[in-house]
Amino acid sequence: MNVQTDRQGGAVAVAFDMDGLIFETESVYWKSAVVLLGRRGCEYTQELCDATMGRTPEFTFKLFIERCSLTEDWRALQRESEDIFIELLKDGYETQPGVLELLDILEKRNIPRAVCTSSARRVVSEVLKKDGIGERFDFVLTSDDITRGKPDPQVYQKAAARFGVAPGEMLVLEDSGAGSAAAFAAGSPCCMLRAAHNINADFSRAVAVVERLDAPEVVALLAPSGARR
Fold it and tell me: From CA 131, how far away is CA 136, in angstroms rounded?
């Protein structure tokens, strides 16, 4: 893919986080963590939630091991957690406000888009099945595609390279402090979604903070048109 900058300005590519941004799955992660740690006599707390929001499975489960004095390998915890999470998805989860509308706008303007998430590919594949949303993205990057997770900028640097644009020409949409720090370090403007699950997040690096993704502040950051592949 090779995307050229629109001369009238604005982002010519958009990178979306997934959990809490495209879908309200943070409550599902909360429930799965409660079950996972509860099986081991440990409590999942808001402090642990805030510390791991937007971070990779390796970071998350190693922190669980440290805080709960566990002796298991983090990969074993990850597999068990994914099993619990995928089962809980069957109870349903919501698409965040404005996501479908923003995707319509991006498609009309021929602006390419990608998912850049800290979640593992196995989980991402299941989550993106809802509403056929996964089919509306040009590519997906997960924790399996990187060696350094958010707040490291690697995932957004990779996305910009794959789009064929400079990082500053790519708008990042995030809901976590770690994600916004990753975008900032990559040199990409970041718009953050404010929601019930991230009231303790750091919004200071965001160029805009909105309550739905099709808000005028987001649309104003986009180029009038992009170039298709």
Answer: 10
State the pTM of this model.
Answer: 0.89
Instruction: Evaluate if residue 169 carries a pLDDT over 50.
Output: yes
For the stretch 48-73, pLDDT in tens is 999 998 899 999 999 999 999 999 99
- Contacts of residues 163-167 at CB distance under 8 Å and 24 or more positions apart, as own/partner, are 163/1, 163/3, 163/12, 163/13, 163/112, 163/114, 163/138, 164/1, 164/2, 164/3, 165/3, 165/5, 165/12, 165/13, 166/5
Element (H, E) at 58: helix 57-68
Q: What is the longest distance spanned by two Cα atoms in the chain? A: 58
- Give residue-wise pLDDT tens across range 196-229: 888 888 899 999 999 999 999 999 999 998 654 4
Domain-wise residue ranges, the chain: 13-24+94-219, 26-89
State residue 2's pLDDT score: 33
Asked if the 26-89 domain carries CATH number 1.10.150, the reply is: yes
Q: What is the CATH superfamily name and number for domain 13-24+94-219?
A: HAD superfamily/HAD-like (3.40.50.1000)
